[in-house]
Amino acid sequence: MLGSFYLLWLVAMTTSLVSKAQILTPQDYEEEDDEAVTTPSVAVPCDYDRCRHLQVPCKELQKVGPVACLCPGLSREDEQPDPPRLGEVQIVAEEGCVLVHWCAPFSPVNHYWLLLWESNGVPQKSGPLNATVRRAELKGLKPGGTYVLCVVAANEAGESHVPEADVENWADPSFGPCGKLIMPPRPLTLVYAAMGVGTALALLSCAALVWHFCLREQCGCPRR
């Protein structure tokens, strides 16, 4: 009798626990995964380098990811842009050209252009360059010439400030928009000059020898 009562009690407890248990279906697991995915992520700085050539604007980079990245602070669009920073200038003496590199200012920019002075003359202005451009080539520079080169940024409010260019007395500021540029002579010109000097020295030596023997003949010096 006692054994039957204990068996009935055990069956009743098992039924009660099964009815209270919560069975997890595959849909429940998917909902948990969705909750983990939709957890808000922390914003990170954008992959933006103001010195990189063909750099996509930072506002466009913010539209790529699910969470907008952080852009560097810029001045207002209704203000003139700050001057760019002139970077490395590579000189190609054989072709009489230079490859100019610069960094964008912390200001909204629509386009750039380059200014070039020679011997305090009228500045030569290049065509407009796209706002993503950070590198440009200048051709037609004279061998041995001295120039002042500046990078100018422009937007709807105006253009960046350019210092007065005095080619002869130019004081090159650090990290500014301008720099002094001295073109070396072309390598072929140096070769021709060396050949000319060598030829002149050879002719001068021959003339000195002829003059020496002529003097010996006039003075009647005995020949050895």
TrEMBL record:
Keyword list, A-Z: Membrane, Signal, Transmembrane, Transmembrane helix
Protein's gene: Bscl2
Tree of life domain: Eukaryota
Lineage: Eukaryota, Metazoa, Chordata, Craniata, Vertebrata
Gene3D superfamilies: Immunoglobulins (2.60.40.10)
Residues annotated as domain Fibronectin type-III: 80-174
Signal peptide range: 1-21
Record's protein name: LRRN4 C-terminal like
CDD domains membership: FN3
Transmembrane segments: 190-214
PROSITE patterns given in the database record: FN3 (PS50853)
